[in-house]
Amino acid sequence: DNWLYNAKSGKRVRRIDGKWVMETTPFRGQWGIAHDDFGRLYHNNNSTCLFGDQVAPNLLAGNAGVNLKTPEYIQLGPNNTWPVRVTPGVNRAYIAKKNGYPEDTLDPKTFKLLTTTASAGMAIYRGTNFPSDWLGRGLVGESVVNLVKVIQIDDSDGKLSGSHPFGRSEWLASSDERFRPVNLYNSPDGAVLLLDMYHGIIQDKTFMTSYLRDQYLSRGLDKPATGHGRIYRIRYNAGKLEAPLDFEKLSGEELIKLLAHKNGWHRDMAQRVLVDRGDASVVPMLEKLVGVPGFPLGSINALWTLEGLGKLSPKAVNAALASKDTKVLCSGLWASTKLAAKDLPAVSAAIFAITPNSDEVKIYLARALGPLGTPEAYERLAQLIQNDGTKPFVRAAAFSGLDTREVAFKTAAGSKLTDKGLIAWLDQGAGASVAAVSGEGLKGDHLVSFNRGKALYSGVAACFGCHGADGAGIPNLGPPLDASEYVNGPPERLSRILLHGLTGPITVAGQKYTPQADMPGLAMNPSMTDENLADIATYVRHEWSNKSAQVKAEVFTKTRAETKDQAGRPYNAATLK
């Protein structure tokens, strides 16, 4: 869609008319990001191999007045790992039932990691060298236990699911403890490129336990390795390799042909070069390709190349809306939301003509109807919500397309609008006000501590990686901090959590959360002072909707002394009371 997305970020960027533009986007993952042929994004976190967005980027983010809190992504496949060597060099391998913990980190019989703790960068295979059944599979590095996991991704009417295709083994695994697969890419020749950091130490210092430090030192992993990392090309011997092309020397017509190439790298690069050139003479050829049947990938890429050039027209969108291919049709509906308001009447008839027999199409149709802003569009949207509003994302997509039109839609929908949740969203969106300024109303030492804590939260302490920049939490990773009784309650309890960590399940504001990994404490990090921890506590207690008092360093000093025997053992909800 011509935007640049980062992992561990809630922003996307794009160059428009010579200037970089930044927009808000859902926060995604920690270490890597990839996309499939339709443009859906994939990401992960330490303890989850792969998440997949089930809808197009920002499709549900069109109405800034309300945070829908609708998770767009789903876990794909299991998080089990099958290393080929014993793996004691895991940060919290000491967490074991024999040591009094409720679960094992390592298999007590094989001493191998049971589930991922260091998922890294990934790729969605879109090449031509591997066998055809590899298309669309996810490849994910696990940098601590020296392997690359493959996840079979299936798409059933827009619903993603994942599975592990190799039983109790991995596609690629090494007995070399310095093998650190940190990222993977589709290669220009149709194969896969693997980036191996090849380094002894992989854990950042902020959360390194004394146990792991001893593991590194005992095997000399703190010493320099041979070389400075490796890049491997992984190819299928029986498959062909694409010949090199100098894209800068190709004509516009030659690049347009490559938009339908079977190798995903070629399609991506052709789109990028065409957009970068800004040559308007290719527009008629691109519009023609959108409507060519039998080449859905070419149609999709041509459509978004036009959008990237700023030349997206009703003609091109209507061609996509007439397609028999579901993904092309959904792309057309998605693209219609990018048209200027003056162009929307020219695509209304094509949108109204769609009979949504697919659940996936219903989502994109719900998103596209609202911006049309006509009585007929509102009537059709109300009917769609009445019939299918309980299906995943339909209601959220409808609301996303009604920004500034909430009152008009409610009036037009009349008695057909019975969804109380949607009505609440519409009322909230219609009366949305500008959010309060961060730290507003604070003065003196409280404000100074707040600002220091804010920098630590999104910097060295990396709290936002699990709890989100908006404090709303991240599914499967960290519960919300906004309106949390654990944040706004007694400072002494919060200090115990920050010092020694927390394990789930935990109930916050009446909702139960079961993160897939423990929250690590910061007591064992010698660089994190009591003042630092107090600043973080002060920040989270007065950010977002929280309005609680400042926490002083003395609270952490006292708690540290009183809980010295905790020794890195995380608390749970029961032991915190």
Can you walk me through this structure?
This protein is α+β, with helices and mostly antiparallel strands and 577 residues long. The chain folds into 3 domains: 27-234, no CATH class; 355-433, no CATH class; 444-576, Cytochrome Bc1 Complex, Chain D, domain 2 (Orthogonal Bundle), CATH 1.10.760.10. The chain is built from 20 helices and 19 strands. Strands 8, 9, 10, 11 and 12 form a 5-stranded antiparallel beta sheet that branches. It has a 4-stranded antiparallel beta sheet with strand order 4-5-6-7, with no helix packed on it. α10 crosses α12 and α14 crosses α18 (530-540). The longest helix has 14 residues, at 264-277.
Entry summary:
By secondary structure, the chain is of the alpha+beta class.
What Rg is obtained from the alpha carbons, in whole angstroms?
26 Å
- Helix content range of the residues, please? 25-40%
Show unreliable segments. none
Beta-strand level of the residues, as a percent range? 15-25%
- N-to-C span: 49 Å
Structure class: alpha+beta
Largest sheet: 5 strands, antiparallel
Please state the average pLDDT score: 93
Which descriptors apply to this entry?
single chain, 577 residues, alpha+beta, Cytochrome Bc1 Complex, Chain D, domain 2, four-stranded antiparallel β-sheet
Fold blueprint:
Blueprint: E1 4-5, E2 9-16, E3 19-28, E4 33-35, E5 41-45, E6 48-53, E7 73-75, E8 119-124, E9 138-142, E10 147-156, E11 159-163, E12 172-173, E13 181-186, E14 192-196, H1 210-218, E15 230-234, H2 252-258, H3 264-277, H4 283-290, H5 296-309, H6 314-321, H7 326-336, H8 345-352, H9 359-372, H10 375-388, H11 394-400, H12 406-413, H13 420-430, H14 444-457, H15 464-467, H16 485-488, H17 491-500, E16 501-502, E17 506-508, E18 511-513, E19 519-520, H18 530-540, H19 553-562, H20 573-576
Antiparallel strand pairs: 1-2, 2-3, 4-5, 5-6, 6-7, 8-9, 9-10, 10-11, 10-12, 13-14, 14-15, 16-19, 17-18
Helix pairs in contact: 2-3, 3-5, 4-5, 4-6, 5-7, 6-7, 6-8, 7-9, 8-9, 9-10, 9-11, 10-12, 14-18, 17-19, 18-19
